[in-house]
Amino acid sequence: MIVREIYNFIDEIAPFNTQMDFDNAGLLVGGMDEKVNKIGVVLDITPDAVEYAKNEGIDLIVAHHPVIFAPLKSLKSHTVPFLLAKNNINAICAHTNLDCAKGGVNDALCDALCLEKIGDFYDSEFPNLPPIGRIGALPHSMTSCEFAKYVKEKLNSDGVEFVEGKNDIKNVAVCGGSGGSMLFDVIKKGIDAYVTGEAKHHELIDAKNEGITLVVAGHFETENVIVKNFAEKLEKKFPEICVEIIPQNSPVKRV
Fold first, then answer.
1. Alpha carbons 162 and 190: distance in angstroms, whole number
2. Domains in the chain, please, with CATH?
3. In whole angstroms, what is the distance from residue 177 CA to residue 8 CA?
4. 68: alpha, beta or left, given left = phi > 0 and alpha = psi -120 to 50?
């Protein structure tokens, strides 16, 4: 097996040409013709993830967040791109293309929250790209506080922030990661609650003013739901290759 075969499969299920224009998804370290004996799947490629991959004989890491995002002006020995190259580990990163893909990050988030009757909604800043957000229904209605506790439990989170809305919650919109800017796209849909990973203070104020429940559940927690799902897809497609989830916890601690 070579990197190109894994890359082409990911391109089929989450086309790289659907990434947002600020993004840097794709094969970011390594070569298309490099041999692959073992794949590691993880949300973020950190030095710890590289060390784990080296010890486990992983020669391709498939991650969500780009290991190179802004242009590099130097390549120092402690940085992740340097460590990957030093240890002959390739890296494919599927970011916003995986967010909007069918069966991608936001569908996995819907699954984690046990939402039903799933539909799409667009990010108004990127109207020409596939819809990134999802809308679904809860199994039963909840108050804002009950729903915030429900999200915390379902995402195995240490804690969430929430703004209390004016209505009990039945319909929910989700966008994993930094989805606060999509708040008014959600409001226009008449949705009871919105779950995302990050929101700015003024977005919390906007939610309060508009009477919508907003649950800010953590960037890591709202996106790490894709890792197990993605690993299973790779295992099914490439049964002859060992696929392993690289263990990882959120870098954020709550007290």
1. 18
2. 3-97 (3.40.1390.30), 102-219 (3.40.1390.30)
3. 25
4. beta
Cβ atoms of 165 and 212 closer than 8 Å: yes
The rounded distance, in Å, linking the Cα atoms of 72 and 92 is 17
**Quick one: which of 46, 250, 44, 49 has its CA closest to 155?**
250
* Angle value at C-alpha 227, between 229 and 186, nearest 5 degrees: 85
Residues 17-45 pLDDT 10s: 999 999 999 999 999 999 999 999 999 99
What are the tens digits of pLDDT across the range 132-183?
999 999 999 999 999 999 999 999 999 999 999 999 999 999 999 999 999 9
Sort strands 133-142 and 169-175 into parallel, antiparallel or unpaired: antiparallel
Could you tell me the pTM of the whole model? 0.96
Characterize 88-101 residue by residue with b for buried, 16 or more Cβ atoms within 10 angstroms of its Cβ, and e for exposed: ebbbbbbbbbbbbb
The Cα 195–Cα 126 span in angstroms is: 20
